[in-house]
Amino acid sequence: MNFSSDNVSPICPEILNAIAAESESAALPYGADDKSRQLDAAFSALFGTDVCVIPVATGTAANLVGLSGLVSPFGGVVCHHHAHINMTESTGVAFYGSGAKLLGIDGPSAKIEADTLDRCLGSHISNGMHSVDPECVAITQSTEFGTVYDVAEVQAIGNVCQKHGMRLFMDGARFANAVAALDCHPADITWKAGVDVLSFGATKNGALAVDAIILFDPKLRRHTEKSRKRGGHLFSKHRYLAAQLLAYVQDDLWLRNARHANEAAKALQKSLENMGATAAFPPQGNELFIHMNDDLAQRLRDAGIVFRPWASIGPDAYRFVCAWNSPIELIKSLPQSIG
Amino acid sequence: MNFSSDNVSPICPEILNAIAAESESAALPYGADDKSRQLDAAFSALFGTDVCVIPVATGTAANLVGLSGLVSPFGGVVCHHHAHINMTESTGVAFYGSGAKLLGIDGPSAKIEADTLDRCLGSHISNGMHSVDPECVAITQSTEFGTVYDVAEVQAIGNVCQKHGMRLFMDGARFANAVAALDCHPADITWKAGVDVLSFGATKNGALAVDAIILFDPKLRRHTEKSRKRGGHLFSKHRYLAAQLLAYVQDDLWLRNARHANEAAKALQKSLENMGATAAFPPQGNELFIHMNDDLAQRLRDAGIVFRPWASIGPDAYRFVCAWNSPIELIKSLPQSIG
Amino acid sequence: MNFSSDNVSPICPEILNAIAAESESAALPYGADDKSRQLDAAFSALFGTDVCVIPVATGTAANLVGLSGLVSPFGGVVCHHHAHINMTESTGVAFYGSGAKLLGIDGPSAKIEADTLDRCLGSHISNGMHSVDPECVAITQSTEFGTVYDVAEVQAIGNVCQKHGMRLFMDGARFANAVAALDCHPADITWKAGVDVLSFGATKNGALAVDAIILFDPKLRRHTEKSRKRGGHLFSKHRYLAAQLLAYVQDDLWLRNARHANEAAKALQKSLENMGATAAFPPQGNELFIHMNDDLAQRLRDAGIVFRPWASIGPDAYRFVCAWNSPIELIKSLPQSIG
Amino acid sequence: MNFSSDNVSPICPEILNAIAAESESAALPYGADDKSRQLDAAFSALFGTDVCVIPVATGTAANLVGLSGLVSPFGGVVCHHHAHINMTESTGVAFYGSGAKLLGIDGPSAKIEADTLDRCLGSHISNGMHSVDPECVAITQSTEFGTVYDVAEVQAIGNVCQKHGMRLFMDGARFANAVAALDCHPADITWKAGVDVLSFGATKNGALAVDAIILFDPKLRRHTEKSRKRGGHLFSKHRYLAAQLLAYVQDDLWLRNARHANEAAKALQKSLENMGATAAFPPQGNELFIHMNDDLAQRLRDAGIVFRPWASIGPDAYRFVCAWNSPIELIKSLPQSIG
Questions:
Q1: Which of B6, B99, B159, D104 could form a disulfide with C94 if both were Cys (CB 3.0 to 4.6 A apart)?
Q2: Is the domain of C186 the same as that of C108?
Q3: Is pLDDT at B333 greater than 80 in this prediction?
Q4: Which residue range is the domain that position A51 belongs to?
Q5: In this predicted complex, what is the ipTM?
Q6: Closest approach of chain B CAs to the CA of C56, in angstroms?
Q7: In which family does this protein belong, per the annotation (chains A, B, C, D) (predicted)?
């Protein structure tokens, strides 16, 4: 069992079939094909409002291209210190943002709290053209520590953004897991709460490689498309991105996969706690951060379980990530099988 | 029949099977999986020298990331005015090159001639830190007008580059078609001729989406990997890029596909000439640029043949591109079927 | 006598006095001082319309910062191949323009002709997000070959720009020499002709170091000020830029200096022609490009005259530049003194 | 009396005379003149080692251009949160550094402590191409809070940098004040302590506008010169930068000016303390940060004293900056004159 990340999982059958089904015929390139032209409608239906969908092949691309329209070359993006865009995407935000700067803030379990954000933005003293003034806020849902903003929390952050004239970006590499955990409508934690742009992840949750930039503000389309092209992220065989995304949202596949992963994580938490581990954060999505002693860690490794130490939380901390195909029954039987 | 581009073709079966075969098990992300770790060896064998392989999902990314290590932020990339990097990749070279500038030159049928290049580089008057001095030459093989540099031509360009201290980049979006047309060893038109970096295209020739940056100079690896990551082109499920590439080079699939496309283009040329068209350039790869009158163009369209006008060559000019799956027998019978 | 450039000339007395006069008292930094606050009014009076003035210390900075507000990161700036921004400012346009690309066109004596520009813009085939589409036109007044656009020519270019939705930038490093040569109102060749931004040169014409970015569109102020600051061009002792500029435009000093330089160039042309040289272009401002034989060139050098060969015009071509302090009587007597 | 900043002070007589002396004759541009060619020798003598001097007109330019050669587009610059490059230079570090990122750390009175730095660098977990790894450390001497690193402190930081393979940059906008305060040789707190590049400020300490980038590593010259030119910071009348710098270091003018400013600051501290203020930090250079009550602040303002509130230190905190021309006797008599 490999819990090192959800990106170790393969393509799920429905999406593989959708790719294979595209392998019969010719189709126009660069998004002019039939499948690509269905994207806006499909996601507008899913979100209950008109959206513009710009697919790319990686979550980093979705974040960087998606953010690029929300901040000027002289502006700042407020995010949590532990945000993926701050920790794990090289200098990509400055690259796609022509110099834009990340402004890290703190908060429990990788979450920005609305009050903290309000204080931070309210106490920021602009020094005119000398200072980097915040122009955008970026949150991750579910977060880098496996926690989930509930509907009220996102709404509160959206309100703070509106109050201070900030655009709001959501890194949704694990958006499906958050929606599944909250059992809410996707609109509730996006445009209804003030999110301008969402990176809607599919890669980690069953796709081969596709994450969609969802624009809730259609005026962003032109810049975002140009940024995508210039970054080298416009697929010629664009239909293969579209086919993956359409299969992903058809019949709620995205939610079914996410619910499975979340359930697996809950089962894993229980099994690990039974063996003596303790959760570092209340796990809500498909990521589990736990503390355990060396002995337990070694026994798990000896049993072929793969997982990663997570030093930023502590020397005895580890991350386990479940996926759409994690074997729930095996997970439940871990305490017995490892003993 | 759709000849508007080779990128309208679907995935070929061997590559689809390779993708499907990856859908059984977990694998480490970001290139640490078994398939990805085979890439350097597979391509080193193919090229007959040690190479470093850095796969990305689009040809534009392969060009831009690949070039980024060969030119400084203050330097120039000499290319043909009609080069894809100059005409069709937005401001991508400056983006990935931190400001680097394209310096266009002329030449027949989208080819740079070694003599012209030598004169151009020899007559360039550097103005020190004021001027943009050439640091790199980029050629496309096969070219944007469907022609192919022969071995001696690439070697001559390589010699000029060496003489003037230039790095040499090759945009090989249709590299397979060139090798198939020349019936040469891939080494003959790359590292043996002085090419430092090659973008080795697979997407147009049967893959879903993968082009490989081939580094013949291992010292470029670190910069190129960092540039790929920052650009958002490092796949988490990297194995799917690797699987495509390994299938593509196994049992000469890349050359078989290219030979098929080239043969189809030759048959198409013959058929069109039989109907009154004339080739704008001697077609060598899988792209065909022809002149024809409105009547013939209309009859082809009426028969459901798809192709594109090509205004940069002339008002009566059109492009037809064949692919790995073009129906050669149908193409041969065009004069009869259209009448 | 040193004709290698007008930038070899020292500060003129009026401007030196203005600098010295600022050396008595304290003044607020970054443009909040009294002198700086007079700039907008002084130049609005000079141009006969409301302008915003943003001073920097070099002509390159004035061009690059000034252009940065007129073109997107994905767009092109049409200019003459011989334009200073294309030939002598490194990769600065892409740097300040976040990737923006120069698109060189031809024209006689370094001038863009309105008809050529119209054809070029009219025949440009946008390829959507793939291509770099022109967004701005940049002309130099007076030009890099010492010629001057007359009022009708600038107006015609302005009309073409308006027709095609282009912004219009003017590199006026030697703007004073052009106005002096044309004996026109500065409005006639700027905002009345459609110029959006002008770099108004003073450094070559008597200042220590200051060129002003003149914005005819006040909406550009915010971006331009931020770009100036980020580029490191916002002076703390801003008053010294302002003092130079105010002295430069007071009592028509700028025009008096320019008239002197133009007159010197005319005298020099006459003297050189008397000695057998021929003008490469009809000299209109303070720059003179001539053809002469080796013998004459050597005799001039032997007499201590400094000037520069200009290979881009021809092997027997040379440039002579006169300045605000060129010794006109000595110049007139050159044929006698050299013999 | 205006203590709002040292940049409100005018040019000092020696430097104004040097500028005026350059106003007699012609001189070659862009650093080829006699004065500019003396710079390397003059500063090599001053520092007791071979240095390369690259002058620019602002402190921000000196910092940004100077740093640009010490960090890759994917790397990080460790600095204090309160560093000028982090707080007051827009997104300039990312701009000149092609994306390079600032990594802020804490420390008392705007100083980085060697132990903290060592822990920070030692505990940094590189995530390969995903993370931004520190490549350079930047310190300010004297600091943004008016404190001064002593010789041992700089040496300790230099040792930590060497241990971790970091380059070391020093923002010396007020370097003279630090040397004057320490009464040390300038070598002791620069190259002997491991500093690679120093921005050597003159503007605030008596010049019109010039700060010199001092390269202790000559291999940085080429990149730094290209970066300066592209940024628009290469003066055509370069001799006026050189003349200022030569006058500034001749006969220890830079130290005499700095000693005066430091002495004025000490006198001011004493006067303010006599009136009830308390120093926020031990003042060492020419900047004074104090706490005082509203009543005292108002009485000072009523007496025509100009100074600035400094909210980042506290609601009752203010900054006073003395300069080369601050009236020491008047400052001493403040308690009497204000009463």
A1: B99
A2: yes
A3: yes
A4: 12-253
A5: 0.97
A6: 19
A7: Belongs to the threonine aldolase family.
Percentage of residues in chain B having pLDDT higher than 70: 100
Question: Residue A24 pLDDT more than 90?
Answer: no
Number of separate domains in chain A? 2
Residues B209 and B292 occupy one common structural domain = no
* Residues in contact with B216: Cβ distance below 8 Å, sequence separation at least 6, in sequence order: B47, B49, B51, B190, B191, B195, B196, B197, B198
Is the CB of residue C82 less than 8 Å away from at least one CB of chain A? Answer: no
B315 close contact with C: CB closer than 8 A:
no
Q: A137 and A39 in one domain?
A: yes
Question: Does B72 contact D234 at a Cβ distance shorter than 8 Å?
Answer: no
Considering only CB atoms, B226 lies closest to which of D74, D226, D234, namely: D74
Boundary of a domain, candidates D253, D277, D312: D253
Residues from chain B that touch D229, judged by Cβ atoms under 8 A, are 129-130
Q: What is the CATH number of the domain that holds B124?
A: 3.40.640.10
pLDDT of residue A317: 96
Nearest to C237 among D2, D63, D203 (CB): D203
Residues 6+ apart with CB under 8 A from B245: B39, B42, B43, B53, B55, B202, B207, B210, B212
Does residue B339 carry a pLDDT above 80? no
Residue-wise pLDDT for A53-78, tens only, equals: 999 999 999 999 999 999 999 999 99
Is A230 in the C-facing interface, judged by CB distances under 8 Å? yes
Please list, in sequence order, all residues whose beta carbon lies within 8 angstroms of the beta carbon of residue B45, skipping any fewer than 6 positions away. Answer: none
Cβ neighbours around C204 below 10 Å, total:
27
Partners of D81 on chain A (C-beta within 8 Å) are none
Task: Order the strands of the B101-105 sheet from edge to edge.
Answer: B52-56, B211-215, B197-201, B167-172, B134-140, B76-80, B101-105
Name the percent of chain D lying above pLDDT 90.
Answer: 96
pLDDT band at residue C283 using 50, 70 and 90 as cut-offs: confident
| Crossing angle of the two packed helices B39-47 and B239-249, in degrees rounded to 10 | 30
Token output for A18: 């959708």
Which one of D29, D90, D232 has the shortest CB-CB distance to C226?
Answer: D90
* C245 & C196 share domain: yes
In the structure encoding, which two tokens stand for residue C115, read together? Answer: 């008809």
Band (pLDDT 50/70/90 cuts) for residue A282 is confident
Taking only Cα atoms into account, the Rg of chain D, rounded to an integer number of angstroms, comes to 20
- Examine the domain organization and report whether C325 and C193 are in the same domain: no
Q: Assess A74–C contact: CB distance below 8 Å, yes or no.
A: yes
Q: How confident is the model at residue B164 (pLDDT cuts 50, 70, 90)?
A: very high
Asked if B229 and D99 come within 8 Å (Cβ–Cβ), the reply is no
CATH number at residue D268: 3.90.1150.10
- Are C102 and B99 within 8 A, CB to CB? no
Give all chains having 3 or more CB-to-CB distances under 8 Å with chain B: A, C, D
Tens-place pLDDT, residues A101-146: 999 999 999 999 999 999 999 999 999 999 999 999 999 999 999 9
Q: What is the dihedral of CA D300, D301, D303, D304, to 10 degrees?
A: 130
Residues C264 and C329 sit within 8 Å (Cβ to Cβ): no
Least confident of A170-174, A280-284, B57-61, C54-58: A280-284
Residue in this structure with the two tokens 């996969």, named with its chain if needed: A257
Cβ-Cβ contacts under 8 Å, D88 against chain A:
127, 130-131
In this prediction, residues B8-35 reach a mean pLDDT of: 95
* Same domain, residue pair A216 and A262: no
Q: What single string gives the DSSP state of each residue in C119-130?
A: HHHHH----GGG
Q: In whole angstroms, what is the distance from residue A251 CA to residue A262 CA?
A: 18
Answer whether residue D6 is part of any domain: no
How much is the mean pLDDT over chain D? 97
Residues A141 and A290 in one domain: no
The reply to whether D192 and D264 lie within a common domain is: no
In a domain, C3, yes or no: no
Q: Is B290 within a domain?
A: yes
Q: Do A129 and C74 touch (CB under 8 A)?
A: no
